[in-house]
Amino acid sequence: MVAARQSFFGRHALPVFDFLSSRSRQALEQYLASGASERRERQLLEFFKSVDWLPLEEITLLNGSPARKLPVAEQMSLFQDLKAYYRQKDEVRQMRRLQRQTRQRRVIEYYRQKISSPDKRLLEQLRDYELALTGRDANWQYYFALRSFRRIDAFISQAPAERLSQIAQFKRDVLAYKRNLDSGRWRDPMEDEPFLSFDEWCQHARIEDSSSATQSGRGSGGLSGDYALFQATPQTPLPAIKRQFRQLALRAHPDITGDDGAAMRRLLAAYERVRAAHRSL
Question: Of 240, 136, 244, which is closest to residue 193 (Cα–Cα)?
């Protein structure tokens, strides 16, 4: 005997499926069985994956989506189920945001209690050192931003020789960046700063988006800004750019930021432009 084929929902597992009613599931199974099932199944799976990237308003407006092929009553049932899923995601985001804020307050208080006044002055002096030379504090953030209990404890327990070694390495990195800055090796001609922070780049992208109605395409300045986002140049190996993209994606993901995913979409677009530019070299 030939075993019965497992249902679509049995073959795939996505979080949104737990929110679908039996009516929605049955309607979707009927839709898959009434045509080219493999092609329809692939389209339906892509539709449900997009639920985690697009806001509900955009999902409901996707005219070519498989959900729009269902009868009107089943469409309404499905979108009500999706609304419940989005509502639950919003609640989870808010809860995580509160948890991060609570933890951040605890870390700040721990820092105030544990770090001695001389050490606080030392950290301030090191930050001022980098700011005075380069106008940024990225290396200081990497070495000395004590944003967790573990980093605070590690800093307190450092031996004098170990701390001096860390400070020396920090200053070497700052001076290396300053040399590159002075030589113009990393300078973006469209920006005063050679590297855009992620927040600055998002603002830059929003300005470009607002002016795109009067400008066709992105000029060399736009691509230069994309490279600056990934702290790269056209000579930087693509694997290094990919690593930087992954780090930024962790900060831009909607589940982390709690926004509508616009920053993540702009980040993906910038990475695709840089990758295409590398392939054309």
Answer: 136
Give the single-character DSSP code of 4: P
User: Cβ(225)–Cβ(204) under 8 Å?
Assistant: yes
Q: Quick one: which H or E segment has residue 163?
A: helix 160-183
Rg of the Cα trace of the chain?
25
- The 10 Å CB-count burial string (b at 16+, else e) for 11-28 is eeeeebbebbeeebbebb
User: Is the separation of the CB atoms in 16 and 38 below 8 Å?
Assistant: no
CA atoms lying within 13 Å on the CB side of residue 273: 20
Structure tokens at 73: 């009553």
Amino acid at 68: R
User: Any idea which residue has 């249902």 for tokens?
Assistant: 7
Query: Would you say residue 63 has pLDDT above 70?
Result: no
pTM, two decimal places? 0.49
**Pair of tokens at residue 151:** 């980093």
pLDDT digits (tens, 9 = 90+) for 134-144: 888 889 998 99
